[in-house]
Amino acid sequence: QVDVAAMVQLFGYVDVTDTGFIVAVLSITFNPLFWNVVARWEHKTRALSQVFGSPHAACYCLGTAILVLNCVRSHCFTEAMKSQPKLEDWDCHWTYYSGLAISAVGTLFVISSFLALGFTGTFLGDYFGILMEEKVTSFPFSVLDNPMYWGSTAIYLGWSLMHASPAGLLLTAVVAISYTIAVLYEGPFTEEIYRRKQKGVKSK
């Protein structure tokens, strides 16, 4: 069972009305909304492919925008942590190195996901009509679904522990919730894209 009193005490360290915290929350929630809206718009209209001259060029443009937004998100996350108090009981070597280990595992999942999918596979290439030949099942996809998202969440969790930051932990929860919602929208939509592909192949 969750110790509610401990949770209340922990988040008593967090000022959710702080401007930096609010900006971080907005940045975290905006990113998956942005790439899902843009990618679905592209899938429906092919407008970006027409503007940039090819699906690959359009996908690289969107991917670059996502990378920039993720850098902004990480900056806002870090600044929000700096502006809020640390939890003194956690400000020790044990917590720091635990956070470092969690961040390392998250980084492994993110990098290995990117290497397995490639740039277009990572950055919604299937919405641009750039489909992979088959579903990737190698590591880290053999370990868990959506390893890019959960690896990124683990990085933020580890970063928060390294800074003994209750604000960071709360923001990490926002990251996890945002990704969970994104998966609920992206998963069925992507599966439908590949279902249509398989149906088209079989009909030939």
TrEMBL record:
Localization: Endoplasmic reticulum membrane
HAMAP family: PLMT
EC number: 2.1.1.17, 2.1.1.71
Annotated catalysed reactions: 1,2-di-(9Z,12Z,15Z-octadecatrienoyl)-sn-glycero-3-phospho-N-methylethanolamine + S-adenosyl-L-methionine = 1,2-di-(9Z,12Z,15Z-octadecatrienoyl)-sn-glycero-3-phospho-N,N-dimethylethanolamine + S-adenosyl-L-homocysteine + H(+); 1,2-di-(9Z-octadecenoyl)-sn-glycero-3-phospho-N,N-dimethylethanolamine + S-adenosyl-L-methionine = 1,2-di-(9Z-octadecenoyl)-sn-glycero-3-phosphocholine + S-adenosyl-L-homocysteine + H(+); 1,2-di-(9Z,12Z,15Z-octadecatrienoyl)-sn-glycero-3-phosphoethanolamine + S-adenosyl-L-methionine = 1,2-di-(9Z,12Z,15Z-octadecatrienoyl)-sn-glycero-3-phospho-N-methylethanolamine + S-adenosyl-L-homocysteine + H(+); 1,2-di-(9Z-octadecenoyl)-sn-glycero-3-phosphoethanolamine + S-adenosyl-L-methionine = 1,2-di-(9Z-octadecenoyl)-sn-glycero-3-phospho-N-methylethanolamine + S-adenosyl-L-homocysteine + H(+)
Protein name: Phosphatidylethanolamine N-methyltransferase
Swiss-Prot/TrEMBL keywords: Endoplasmic reticulum, Lipid biosynthesis, Lipid metabolism, Membrane, Methyltransferase, Mitochondrion, Phospholipid biosynthesis, Phospholipid metabolism, S-adenosyl-L-methionine, Transferase, Transmembrane, Transmembrane helix
One cellular component (GO) term of this entry: endoplasmic reticulum membrane
Membrane-topology descriptor: Multi-pass membrane protein
Functional pathway: Phospholipid metabolism; phosphatidylcholine biosynthesis; Lipid metabolism
A UniProt-annotated Pfam family: PEMT
KW Metal-binding (keyword) present: no
Any one of the GO BP annotations: methylation
Species assigned in the record: Rhadina sibilatrix
GO molecular function: phosphatidyl-N-methylethanolamine N-methyltransferase activity; phosphatidylethanolamine N-methyltransferase activity
